[in-house]
Amino acid sequence: MGEPAVDARPDLAAWSCPLPLVDSPNIVMGHGGGGAMSAELVEHLFLPAFGATGDLTDSAVLDVAGIRVAFSTDSFVVRPLFFPGGSIGDLAVNGTVNDLAMSGARPLFLSTAFILEEGTALAELGQVAQALGKAAELAGVRLVTGDTKVVDAGHGDGVYINTAGIGLVPEGVDIRPGRARVGDAILVSGDIGVHGVAVLSCREGLEFGTTVTSDTAALHGLVAAMLETGADVHVLRDPTRGGLAASLNEIARTAGVGVEIVERQVPVPAEVADACSILGLDPFYVANEGKLVAFVPPQDAEQVLAAMRAHPLGAGAAVIGSVVEPHPGMVVARTGLGGTRVVDLPVGEQLPRIC
């Protein structure tokens, strides 16, 4: 008799994620939200399957024949394809450029692959392609390779885009979540929550008394200006899916430090605050596509903040908190009433399909 068959399926009973992940045999929207469900999916399914280890960052920094190369990939499924201030085309470029920039890299090359649904209007696809090409030109990156696939009508949503990017990391730059240190000042480059509200208002036909425009932008120029100060920037992160809360929690847990922010110092524009109040959302969890969070040593905070404010994409930069020794791995916010509240990692996603 031969050896008994081995069941290679993952052991769902061993997973530690709260409902609905463990009890659901299928993928749900929350798995793509950038929160706890996404983290559990990566940690317990993908990483063991791939045999991968190490910190999870926006881009991998690799040594290629003595040259430090940043490499990243991303996919974009935003609905609708066009929204105030942008489209899936420029979002695909800016999102990947920003993933590279968060390791301090200078982006150089991008690939782009289109997954198209049968029946999509060529005129609409042309608009997406034009927006993508223009965004790449503005960012100073070259589109060097790509692919196109078509799926049956009803089995897609018009246009999905996958991109990958390559950039060079300057010598001496070491930016990653694990470098957060007690005492670090936490800076954000401007108003949060704008992109998520812009997409939602367009998708659902909501009006908030004014047009909320997406903040989608390529941030590598802002990062370069910060690094030119000579400051030892410890961590950079663009708070996309899951918003500011998800990014801060990921950094706190990776570095094993506590994070404390001051609510009134976090720049939330009035239109975003109003929209979130009406819809029962927390702006800390709403996605951004043109903002970054930086952790820098306290002695470098003022010069980095000044450099950020001198750049068009950092004019609204602010110090929002610091890294603390208590409650390692946890993010807390000091409220306007003098109390504190825990800002936990979101389970799923408040606003799906926003990037």
Domain module tally: 3
CATH homology-level superfamily of the largest domain: PurM-like C-terminal domain
Mean pLDDT: 90
Which range best describes the helical content: under 10%, 10-25%, 25-40%, 40-55%, 55-70% or over 70%? 25-40%
| Rg calc | 20 Å
CATH architecture of the largest domain: Alpha-Beta Complex
| Major sheet size, sense and barrel closure | 7 strands, mixed
Beta content = 15-25%
Distance between the termini: 53 Å
CATH topology of the largest domain: Phosphoribosyl-aminoimidazole Synthetase, Chain A, domain 2
Which outline best applies? Answer: globular
Helix and strand sequence: HEEEEHEHEEEHHEHEHEHEEE
Spatial strand arrangement across the major sheet: 9-11-8-12-10-13-14
Total helices: the number is 8
- According to DSSP, the number of beta strands is 14
- What is the CATH domain class of the largest domain? Alpha Beta
